[in-house]
Specification:
The protein has 191 residues and is of the alpha+beta class. The chain contains seven helices and eight strands. Helix 4 packs across helix 5.
């Protein structure tokens, strides 16, 4: 579990502003599940999805997501992992491969989290941000993710990564504006 508790370049919970928010969330929580819920809801509801709100700058590091209060799903998942890890809760990164239009190609990755809950084990949560047609919730043991797999070509990637996929980091660090990222969403080839 050590790698799911460690700080890193992108899950930088050693940054003072991330630690401060993590401590505030912990102080308001009476249990681990309550802490996970409040951390999830903070990122889901208080950090705006860059594309939904047409916001810049493009963020990748957890501390930048918190500072600018915006991020794509990938960056928001980096912040949620950082807040949870800062409080000693194992957290990783997960991905889905989804149709961009809902009708087949093109496809892109969608970023979300997995958290290790003592009574359940690994449980996926999606801090993407709700909007009409998207309703992600924290309802263990039932998953309530932002996007269901809707076709045979879409996939839930089963891995739980301790660090963001390089293709995700490359896109987030290569473009300056939300619309440039939107035109170049990361993807992986599936066999």
């Amino acid at each position: 579990m050590h790698r799911y508790l460690a700080p890193s370049q992108y899950i930088d919970f050693d940054a003072s502003e991330v630690r401060a928010v993590a401590a505030s969330l912990a102080a308001r929580s009476n249990s681990e599940n309550e802490l996970v819920r409040s951390s999830f809801e903070f990122v889901r509801d208080e950090i705006r999805h860059s594309s939904d709100f047409k916001l810049n700058p493009v963020t990748c590091k957890a501390s930048d997501v918190l500072r600018h209060k915006t991020g794509y799903c990938y960056a928001k998942s980096h912040l949620l992992a950082a807040l949870l890890r800062a409080n000693g809760v194992p957290a990783g990164l997960c991905y889905q491969r989804l149709s961009v239009t809902g009708n087949g190609a093109p496809y892109c990755l969608h970023g979300l989290n997995a958290v290790y809950l003592k009574d359940i084990g690994w449980y996926r949560i999606d801090p993407r941000g709700n909007k009409p047609g998207v309703d992600a919730q924290f309802q263990p043991p039932k998953e309530a993710l932002a996007f269901p797999i809707a076709s045979r070509s879409e996939r839930d990637l089963p891995e739980i990564w301790a660090e963001p996929l390089p293709v995700v980091v490359q896109v987030l660090e290569s473009f300056d504006t939300y619309d440039q990222v939107l035109a170049n969403l990361p993807d992986v080839e599936l066999i």
